[in-house]
Amino acid sequence: QDNMAFTGKYEVESDENYDDFMRKIGIPSDIMEKGRNFKIVTEVVQNGNDFTWSQHYPGGQSMTNRFTVGKEADLETMGGKKFKATVKMEDGKIVADFPNYHHTAEISGGKLVEISTAGGVTYKRISKKIA
């Protein structure tokens, strides 16, 4: 897997267990409602082990995390909480432990596949490459 594998723009195509997972991590129901049908666009710029990982939401809001694989970084959760974590690369997957969930991301069949797990609930999001 080349070290630019993640670079691109991806739009959510499908997801599984959205409601259960969002409830599990304490996302308020009004935010959950809004987010349910969002076509979130994830934009990734990878330069070797350095990543800029942005999520763009409808209405112009976005969130960006910058990190280097293997080094502690200041990150932000889906809910806007700031925390420190060391992002790892395992078998071509990005692996990060957020305060209340475990997250992996990989490129599989040209799609961005993200899996978040919290207390036995697994949320899977698949995004297709648009740029």
TrEMBL record:
It comes from Nothoprocta pentlandii. InterPro entries: Calycin (IPR012674), Fatty_acid-bd (IPR000463), ILBP (IPR031259). One of its GO terms (cellular component) is cytoplasm. Belongs to the calycin superfamily. Fatty-acid binding protein (FABP) family. GO terms for molecular function: lipid binding. PROSITE patterns: FABP (PS00214). It is found in: Cytoplasm. Residues 8-25 form the Cytosolic fatty-acid binding proteins domain. This is FABP6 protein. PANTHER family: FATTY ACID BINDING PROTEIN. Keywords: Cytoplasm, Lipid-binding, Transport. It comes from the Eukaryota. Signal peptide: none annotated. SUPFAM superfamilies: Lipocalins (SSF50814). CDD domains: FABP6. Its main location: cytoplasm.
